[in-house]
Design goal:
With about 170 residues, this protein is mainly β. About 10% of the residues lie in helices and about 35% in strands. It has three helices and eight strands; from the N terminus they run ββαββββββαα.
């Protein structure tokens, strides 16, 4: 079966930065909904028409991956607003109640980049924002999407897109 919308594609991949330094390897096949919210548009474009066994090599500039880095998504908040066991790398959806920078978006996942006695540095950028990426993907399987999968436009039961979920996978990059 050829990859065409809507379907489910099973992939393995290696992901590296623009200088070919490894970032992530997906060695066990993972299924993604094709034609919805699971994959970046340029990745879908590159995969379209391929079949199981095919390989795709793709170079993604930031605007086609996780966007440009936005300094305006970095803020400082009072240390007292956070749990005692706070560590760099922890992530929070939105800012905590009592935040002093209320103009920051609330629908963003903020990663703690630094913890000081008086304040915490939070970054709402995706860990791969501003980076060129190289993706080498192998199509392991292609199947017809179920009606439920097609309606949901994702295989992620939490409703989070792969872009959002990838914050967990790539959180060590910050």
């Amino acid at each position: 079966m050829q990859i065409e919308s809507p379907c489910v594609v099973s992939l393995t991949w290696t992901l590296s930065d623009g200088q070919d330094r490894p970032i992530d390897e997906l060695s066990e096949p993972v299924e993604f909904f094709f034609g919805g919210d699971d994959l970046l548009p340029k990745v879908e474009e590159a995969l379209a028409g391929h079949v199981a066994g095919d390989e795709v090599h793709l170079h993604l500039e930031p605007e086609h991956a996780f966007g440009d880095y936005k300094a305006g998504l970095v803020c400082f908040e009072d240390r007292q607003l956070f749990p005692q066991d706070l560590e760099a790398g922890m992530a929070f959806e939105g800012l905590p109640p009592g935040a002093k920078t209320p103009d920051m978006p609330q629908d963003v996942i903020y990663v703690v980049t630094e913890v000081y006695p008086s304040h915490v540095v939070l970054d709402g950028n995706h860990p791969l924002a501003g980076m060129s990426l190289r993706l080498h993907a192998r199509v392991r399987d292609v199947r017809v999407a179920t009606q439920e999968e097609a309606q949901a436009r994702t295989l992620n039961s939490s409703g989070m897109t792969v872009m959002e979920a990838s914050r967990t996978v790539f959180s060590g990059l910050h």
